[in-house]
Design a protein that fits this description.
By secondary structure, the protein is of the alpha/beta class. The chain has a single domain, classed as TIM Barrel (Alpha-Beta Barrel), CATH 3.20.20.70. The chain is built from eight helices and eight strands. An eight-stranded parallel beta barrel has the order 1-2-3-4-5-6-7-8, surrounded by five helices. Strand 7, helix 6 and strand 8 form a beta-alpha-beta unit. It is globular. Bound molecules: D-xylitol-5-phosphate (DX5) and zinc ion. The site of zinc ion has 6 residues, from strand 2.
Length: 217
């Protein structure tokens, strides 16, 4: 399986984002993970459209936008226009899931659905054929730097098994608490896109960190 690392901007030096992006580009990171929080869906507020627009101008990297907002359907058009390459939204949000998937696809953006740690795998099986990626949250959404919830590993395994059974080409992304100890565990369970915030930005050698997370070092 080919593995990808998506770097969570939440852990970057936000006042020096241009050089952080440069560093990420040089390190072999595959995508830039952009966490949008509205203070209602989760207990935190981050950044949104104007920042994404600026980031888009600064890099050709794949922009992987993770919407942790109450009504994503209202905003997917805006994020597509601002330069998102992938948009994930939560099945637990108030928006109609199928309508939101369609809106993302119609905007020409890769479509992903995210589920919180307590949301069962079975609840998304029917939707897998519509998706380019399924995001399994491995911490409660809201903050970087939290500890990995190991109960979620079984869910990754079930979802990967279902994707294979259905013969689909759908990535499985994991987000939260991914580090050198947990990365091999989620890879073995079937995840192939690993979001990393604190582990990556704390590393002295970012390229080495990327290789380690992918299991290449
Ligand atoms: C949490 C965010 C994550 C977070 C990951 O709600 O969705 O993307 O930034 O950070 P780490 O890797 O530090 O857990
Ligand atoms: Zn995220």
């Amino acid at each position: 399986m080919k593995y990808y690392v998506s770097a969570s901007v939440l852990s970057a030096d936000l006042l020096d984002l241009r050089s952080e992006i440069k560093k990420l580009e040089e390190s072999g990171v595959d995508m830039l993970h952009f966490d949008v929080m509205d203070g209602v869906f989760v207990n935190n507020i981050t950044y949104g459209l104007p920042v994404l627009e600026q980031v888009r101008k600064a890099t050709n990297m794949t922009l992987d936008v993770h919407l942790m907002i109450t009504d994503p359907l209202k905003y997917v058009g805006g994020f597509a226009k601002a330069g998102a390459d992938i948009i994930s939204f939560h099945s637990e949000s108030v928006s109609d899931v199928r309508k939101t998937i369609k809106a993302i696809r119609d905007a020409g953006v890769r479509t992903a659905l995210a589920i919180k740690p307590k949301t069962p795998a079975e609840s998304v099986y029917d939707l897998l054929p519509e998706l380019d990626m399924l995001l399994v949250m491995t911490v409660e959404p809201g903050f970087g730097g939290q500890s990995f919830i190991s109960d979620t590993v079984e869910k990754v395994r079930l979802i990967r098994r279902k994707i294979d059974e259905l013969g689909l080409d759908c990535d499985v992304q994991v987000d939260g608490g991914i580090n050198y100890e947990t990365a091999p565990v989620v890879r073995e369970a079937g995840a192939n896109v690993l979001v990393s915030g604190s582990c990556l930005f704390k590393a002295e050698d970012m390229s080495e960190a990327v290789r380690k997370l992918k299991g290449d070092a």
